[in-house]
Amino acid sequence: MSHGHSHGESARRHRHGIEEAHGAAGHDHEHGHDHDHASAHALGAHAAGASMRRLGASLVVTATVMVAEAVGGWLSGSLALVSDAGHMLTDAGALGLALVAAWLAARPADDKRTFGYRRAEVLGAQLNVGALLVLSIWIAWEAVDRLRTPHEPIKLGLMAIIAAIGLVANVSILWFLHGEHSLNARSAFLHVVADTVSSVAILLGAGAMALRPGLEWLDPVLSVAIAGLILWGALRLILEITDILMESVPKHLDVGCVCKEMECCAGVIAVHDLHIWTISSGLYALSAHLVVHTDAMGRNDDILNAVKLELRRRFGIDHTTLQIESADYAHVHDYQH
């Protein structure tokens, strides 16, 4: 029994020695690759955490100022302030959705959702669009009613103070969000830009009405202008959502340029059945058939590495599905359009 055990132990040591000798040359390379991969993963996790902290801080500031503007608008009688509070409500919604989408995007893919939950941000953006459309219609309706029917005088001092607070808050939120790239965060950024303009307009309007008491109509007119900004942001978001759901080519990419770059890789004769689409903000996918020289068919891995490297380096496309075929491939099993 002990002899058999010693013999097995010797065999294991022998195999281990062979593995060490056989793998010594590639050990450093593999270790470096694993180290780089781990470093990249750690950096990505750190960036995601920082992004969620910025979004969270922006959401807290937005919600606080939203309540202040709503209360201040009600106490002062300013529809413009109430309108801006409504706009900030949609900003808070967009930021909240961006936070939820970022959390969902970090969840791993499974057998049912092979891309994970990255499209959650698109669903969130759709909800945001609906809220923007309803809000813009309500503000416009209230503004027209105020233009037709005189209301109580506006408390301009309170209106100006709340608008100034809103302006400072919006500038700070813009600073928080300037480095964000997700769909909902960018939509919120655009809304906050509009809010910043609105706050400046409300301040100027309060000053003008203080100097000229007969300019009370400025308040509902400013409200209509804010409603127009909300509607413009909603339309832009609708177009972006539509492009994603229709799996359109991302606006910053040119199919001809991508195809040409792939064909310039050694061994590739032509590219066909090329599709490029957006999965979620910053995540682009590509599928294509690569026609290669017959004498290059034994270098499939080298060709794939070269093409994928160019796609990642030149166009930022990380998710690629490539089929290699020779010039003699007859396509008899392909779907005929």
UniProtKB/TrEMBL annotation:
It is found in: Membrane. Residues 255-326 form the Cation efflux protein cytoplasmic domain. Residues 57-246 form the Cation efflux protein transmembrane domain. The keyword rRNA-binding does not apply. Keywords: Ion transport, Membrane, Transmembrane, Transmembrane helix, Transport, Zinc, Zinc transport. It is a multi-pass membrane protein. The chain crosses the membrane at residues 55-75, 87-106, 127-144, 156-177, 189-211, 217-239. Gene3D superfamilies: Cation efflux protein transmembrane domain. InterPro entries: Cation_efflux, Cation_efflux_CTD, Cation_efflux_CTD_sf, Cation_efflux_TM, Cation_efflux_TMD_sf, CDF/SLC30A. Belongs to the cation diffusion facilitator (CDF) transporter (TC 2.A.4) family. SLC30A subfamily. PANTHER family: CATION EFFLUX PROTEIN/ ZINC TRANSPORTER, RE54080P-RELATED. This is Cadmium, cobalt and zinc/H(+)-K(+) antiporter. It comes from Anaeromyxobacter oryzae.
